[in-house]
Amino acid sequence: MAVSTTTDDITSLILDDHDWFRRQFARLDDITDPTELAKVWQPLADLLDVHARAEEEIFYPHLLRRGDDAEEETLDAIGDHNDIRDGVHEAARHPIGSEAWFEAVHKARMANSEHMAEEEDEGLADFRRNADPGLRAELGRRFAEFKRRHAGVRDLDVSDIDPQEYVEEIEAEIGTRPSDGSLRIGSLKDKD
Ligand SMILES: [Fe+2]
Ligand SMILES: [Fe+2]
């Protein structure tokens, strides 16, 4: 099926954020002054948190309903989001520009780079193959609205979440969780 991606398409909006993340991490390489580092880092740290939560609220619940390999992709992604959050929140505990801060930022960057590649090649690709353009656009609008609502406000709970519990909760909502409570990898397709 030929699908033209629109600017509303959630997979396209996620890619836009990923490109922006790469650019902002690269900008940090050229800066040593803590004030200048903060100007680049703070918006980057904020959006890393908001982006992950927006995906968890809006994208992954629908990937779980439609994807071919959605359970495994989602479990991996939530675990990765936790690793990224750990780096971002560790950085917040140190003075910007200190050795410990650079280490934490590096940890967040490595976790994020690895995660984005996987998310792009697996979850996003899976969703494009299985979700119609109308849904992709609707979710894109919700994703953009979520970002607008929380941009720079720091009003979100951005603590780590348990990947298994997250998947189980959504499966319970969809109504496909087997009575023995086990995960059924790849078995949720079209169950909404
Ligand atoms: Fe992402
Ligand atoms: Fe993600």
Short description:
The chain has 192 residues and is mostly helical. The chain is 70% helix and 0% strand.
List the helices and strands and how they pair.
Elements: H1 10-28, H2 34-66, H3 70-91, H4 99-121, H5 123-130, H6 133-150, H7 163-174
Helix pairs in contact: 1-2, 1-4, 1-6, 2-3, 2-5, 2-6, 3-4, 3-7, 4-5
One fe (ii) ion binds at residues 52, 55, 77, 81, 115, 119.
Structural overview:
The chain has one domain. It is globular and about 50 Å long. 70% of the residues lie in helices and 0% in strands. The model has no long low-confidence stretch (mean pLDDT 91). With 192 residues, the protein is mainly alpha-helical. It is built from seven helices and no strands. The longest helix is centred in the N-terminal third of the chain and has 33 residues, at 34-66. The structure holds fe (ii) ion (FE2) (2 copies). One fe (ii) ion is lined by residues 14, 18, 51, 55, 116, 119.
Shape: globular
Residue-averaged pLDDT, rounded? 91
N to C succession of SSEs: HHHHHHH
Terminus-to-terminus distance: 21 Å
Give the uncertain stretches in residue-range form. none
CA-atom Rg in angstroms: 17 Å
Bound molecules: fe (ii) ion
Put simply, the count of helices is: 7
Helix content: over 70%
Strand percentage lies at under 5%
**Secondary structure: number of strands:** 0
Structural class: mainly alpha
Major β-sheet annotation: none
How many structural domains are formed by the residues?
1
Multimeric state = single chain
